[in-house]
Amino acid sequence: MVPTQHQIQHPREQLTRLRTSELGAHVGERVRVAGWLHARRRLGGLTFLTLRDGWGLVQVVAEGAAAAALDPGPPAESVIAIEGVVTRSAQAPGGLEITAPTVEVIAAATVPPPVALGKRELKAGLATLLDTAVVTNRHPARRAVFRLAAAAMAGFRATLLERDFTEIQTPKLLAAATESGASVFPVDYFGRTAVLAQSPQLYKQMMVGVFERVFEVGPVFRAEPHDTTRHLNEYVSLDAEMGFITDHHDIMALLRDAVAGMVGAMRARAGAELDLLGVALPEVPATIPEITFVEAHELILARHGVDVRGELDLSPRDERWLGDWAREERGSDFLYVTGYPTRKVAFYAQPNPEHPEYANYFDLIFRGTEMVSGGQRRHRYEDYLAVLAERGLPAEPFAAYLDAFRYGMPPHGGFGLGLERFVMQVTGLPTIKLVSLFPRDLHRLTP
Amino acid sequence: MVPTQHQIQHPREQLTRLRTSELGAHVGERVRVAGWLHARRRLGGLTFLTLRDGWGLVQVVAEGAAAAALDPGPPAESVIAIEGVVTRSAQAPGGLEITAPTVEVIAAATVPPPVALGKRELKAGLATLLDTAVVTNRHPARRAVFRLAAAAMAGFRATLLERDFTEIQTPKLLAAATESGASVFPVDYFGRTAVLAQSPQLYKQMMVGVFERVFEVGPVFRAEPHDTTRHLNEYVSLDAEMGFITDHHDIMALLRDAVAGMVGAMRARAGAELDLLGVALPEVPATIPEITFVEAHELILARHGVDVRGELDLSPRDERWLGDWAREERGSDFLYVTGYPTRKVAFYAQPNPEHPEYANYFDLIFRGTEMVSGGQRRHRYEDYLAVLAERGLPAEPFAAYLDAFRYGMPPHGGFGLGLERFVMQVTGLPTIKLVSLFPRDLHRLTP
Q1: What is the pLDDT of residue A182?
Q2: Which ipTM value was assigned to this complex?
Q3: Considering Cα of A401, then A405, then A408, then A413, what sign does the dihedral take?
Q4: What are the structural domains, with CATH classification, of chain A?
């Protein structure tokens, strides 16, 4: 065999590139780092650069001719490599800086960034941040949000895998709208109309018949024409479903563990990001307090003098009040509301066998906002036929789904958790649009 | 607080349900198992049931009145619980059976399954298997395929996370077709036309500017009107992208590790499934052999007397021949083909700096079928403008994407691997449609 291209063409650098996070172990050594020119300032005869790589920042100090050569030097956000000596410095952020640098420009930026990225705070309006997400997502405070989301997702997955759940991917292209409620996006599928899945609900239920325990992490699509701070038209749903449960309390215990796993993974994998954002993680109690829908209405009447007892749902204000109560009276950022009226919830929700007007359904309220819905599902074929008839829904579009129940399904249940909404609540960001890398809303399909 | 519903309503069973996989530790004990009635047969005065749960199968033997009560008993696939004594039995599959059973029907099946699930082999045509996937996916041999896919995915993710890649989710709803090649599905997005992402390519490249190293596991959508054994219109793509590389060989090394991680996870997490399917996993060499496109043509001429030297791509037959060569001459199930003609590959592929007519692009051939494409990408803004102009492509639809390069991007590259195609090749299944839980093809949007 003749030599491959690899062997004949690519001499590599002498110094191996280190990450900024690795420099502490190399004080006094000459090293190579590479990344983006994050910030630059002159002070006396010195030029201070900040280099940003995928793992952090490091200050670089040049003096004399080297300092002059960097003024103006390459534009901000240029990709550069720096070789220099790792030096302790009490003044430098992180206590280290690189001195006696040589700077190599790997790829010069051709325009200045639309927003100054070198500042600790990113000063720009929401529209600018979203329009220029390609570059503003590079800012440490923006990047930290997405690292937290990745950590939360990893914690969710680890929790479910430890409990022997099987990860699945269900189709996002569906033949017809098989779920009541939110509207769907139509797709031209080879001349037929398909729709985008707004939830893996029906498929994950079917899969209980195969694996007993399944979870999915994937996109869902909601064609709701609302422009709010807590809705996205495409978001990441963390879904789980499990068979052979007694009732919804088994699911509530599972969800509690999943949330604890998400919070724990944020702490373990993204401590620096939490510090950077000043985020205080919630404590997840061993048992999350629970209140029934009826009790919640009584409580709101007693505490706030507002009578919502006739309502079929909780308003955002009610959720906030209940969140306040949970924190003040139960010391918990989390609260389960159970026992919603059966006629209010999705047709697949299992009624409470002793009080069928209430369903074995729950919402999880986190810091005053509903974050997760879940519950026990109906598992008998005849119950599905009955509830569809009762609600005047045709059975035909659900035929494939209903088939699973004809062939024997155990009592089961699950939940769906919006990743972005969870991270929004944890970080306290003012809008969910800042928790999606490239949010999709009523007006936004780019970038 | 009044007692919650949980405290007052749900007495639990005395015996905790065990999984079939846990019975070996309970020989001689009375236990409870639950699952699906997988198979039943009578022999003399005995009735043998096979119970299937999410983890395996167990044989149950009833005699006397108990045996008579099970004839006919509940239909196949009914959900049942059995209490009985775990007993060693040389004849029983797995060496254990449950004797002296009592059987409780949790949810009776209302119709017999369309295909007998209780047999070792699932005897049905492809159309039947796909039409009734809701129930045929329950068969141990079908379920094993999806467990292997889940294991492969977990191995991919673990490999990337160990190397400090950040997991991302990029939008599936895009404003316009920004990728050449395969066609896209149009979506009605609030009265505008959006398209479904056929790859996270452009977004994952942009994200190198944020995280340096990213990966994504998610659905992609290809509106190609082909009905073949190796294409799906929706599939799961495992994508990675990384910055600060020297060239495509860094990506080839990463992909080698990812594939080794996938194979290793299948071995570690799904050994029983591999046995059941009789699958021999490939060995992943420490370095996967490499051949250039030009060398591949010469080799095909020398070994097969067929001159394909003018071609711009490899045909499936060529790939098969190269796969044979790799196995026979290099002892490898895997082969990299590098150095494709630049004008043949995607516009973002980085040309070889010394021979710009060839690109730093590769395909990974696995057992004679192309499974992964990847390579180094262009990273300079002006190079993108030049190649788009050269190919007569407008720059406008790529504006948001190109922006990332105006703000400084390092040399980078990555790959995209179709999960279903990988599992198809590992298992030797005759069509990729049997590797998707609910495949989407030209004619199939349900179940």
Answers
A1: 55
A2: 0.94
A3: positive
A4: 5-107 (2.40.50.140), 140-435 (3.30.930.10)
